Amino acid sequence: MKEKIKKLVIITGYFTGESYGLLGPQMAAGIINDYTDYEAIVVGVTNEDDKKDLKTAINHYFKDQQKVVGFSSLGGRPDLFDFAGELKEEGAVTILAGPQAAPDYKGEIDWQAHPHRFKGLSDHFSFALHGPAQQIIPVLASDFDEDLSKFEGVLCKDEQGQIVETPSMSWDDAFLSKVDWQTLHMLKDAVFKPSPITTAQVLQQIGCPHAAKKRQISIDYPWGLQKKDFQSSFVTICQQGCSFCDVAADKGYMGAVNETAVKEQLLCLPAGSDGRKIPFELINESPLFKLARIFEMADELSIELSQINLTLRADYFLKGLKALESVLAIATTKNVRILLSSIGFESFDDTILKNLNKGLDKQTNLDAVQAIRQLKHKYPAHFGYLKEEGANHGFIHPTPWDNQDISYEINKTISMYRLSLDILPNHSTPLIIHHASGLADWIRQIELKENIEFQRVGTTIGWWQTKDQSLL
To answer: What was the pLDDT predicted at 247?
Structure first.
């Protein structure tokens, strides 16, 4: 095989002290390595990493070659946006990809007419790539000598500085079958060093069924504004999925990945010291009815599993409870653990759940908690959901709608149902409003109706602070 001389680095956000894989960036690296003349690695960059050391590592990695640096799943980090801009100014080709690449490159809706809005990242990146990773193949084959706007999924600036966007190609399961989990690197002593992972991912479904249908929803004004004499007390928007979810806005619901691709992904999972495949998150927002099939595939492939991590909604958990019990019986015989790694409870208040467009109520969340605890009692060794078992369930607080009455009722529910013991994370997550989410439309309508401005913090909207006052 001919040795590759061209190189590409994919930079992504990462958490200090962790050892998990990154499906999207690592799958993209695999596609680049298999279908282009480039050798690609993924580099997880933590908040603590020194950017000078990162620059040194990049210079050492590329030496005198053209620097081609992709950025994906950045989590809204301004430091990485700025770093991409620095590299671009120095002559590197910088590529913005991953979730919300298109709106982040273009900027917030109508930002040109509203200077306080997020103006986008087109100055920081040579171009953006929105959609399936295989779209990068012809771009890399061109060596960037051709008009990039002719390639599918590309956003770039024309000669007049205007952003042009080409429609994305469709998702193709053939490119979703292979993941090389050895491509992840971390920054150590100002060089990139391979980083083994202990938890991987398997993609079984793209998007969320809750995001499959658009509907009109009414969202209350923030509590801090309800106390004023405004004309309205709510805003109506058209929404897919949860109103805070930028993934719902980015992908919607595209359905299942075919079994051939899922099987290949299972085979690609690294093995642990005991020969079993390492724990993996099954990426499927409604996984319980297809979970038994994962065990059947493992048998067909003659591989042994160790642990499957699930992320899902409380109502989907209840709907699939009988199916899960059947799977737990299978898991017990095979000594495999099923971990509910994250249930998206988000809140235990009906007003907040309505405004988040969760599509369920507080009682549904509490019914799920009760059922989860009963399962744990029945399958103590092979079913997990506890914080100390690695779970981190969704609990969003504070939100714009918190007030004294709501806080009192939530705290009473937490106490009555002992949620702090096993369900609530050690730290709640404040509501984050990405500029391309449904709640961003809500914020912008309020701004126009009430002639006020909310802060922008990178790619997010600071709902807690208007230009004139704090809402907390």
So the answer is: 75
